[in-house]
Amino acid sequence: MLTTTQSLFDLTAADLMSRDVICIPSSTSLREAARQLVEAGISGAPVTDEEGHCLGVLSHTDLARSLARGDEAAAAAEEVFADWQLADVERLPGGEVSRFLTRAAITASLQTPIDELAAVMCDARVHRVLITDPSGKVIGIVSSLDVLRAVADHGQPQA
After folding, report:
1. CATH at 139
2. What is the pLDDT of residues 134-150, one digit of tens each?
3. CA distances (Å), origin 33, targets 76, 101, 131
4. What does the alpha-carbon distance between residue 127 and residue 143 come to, in Å, rounded to a whole number?
5. FRET partner for 12 with CA separation of 20 to 30 A, picked from 38, 87, 93, 106?
6. Which pTM was predicted?
7. Does a structural domain hold residue 2?
């Protein structure tokens, strides 16, 4: 729950974002990256280079696509019940995560207002916006659930 007296449309990425961002190094194997997503209970994470700059995002959708493209397309259909659900990460192809990520990461600054964050998520059909500093390093993440939580919290009558 947000603890702010700001109106909903005054909220910015700085107010909404999670600051404890799990970043996946680009040299991580796809299977290990999938395990990290599952263990953290998240549906995607930024992939970074050695200096911490964002190269893109790896999401459950990317994992499902990698399964479907493999030689085991029939097995992929059995293992993926939705684009975010994987039953067996060992069926994923080998190789570094940098080969499978979505390179067009959606980023914003700390000052980006909530309505712009929501609009970009809808327009780009993504569930997360990476918040970066001026050098391109990931400092936070705003998910669609963060936006929904803010709407729900601000829909409550003020006491």
Report:
1. 3.10.580.10
2. 888 899 999 999 999 99
3. 18, 11, 21
4. 6
5. 38
6. 0.78
7. no
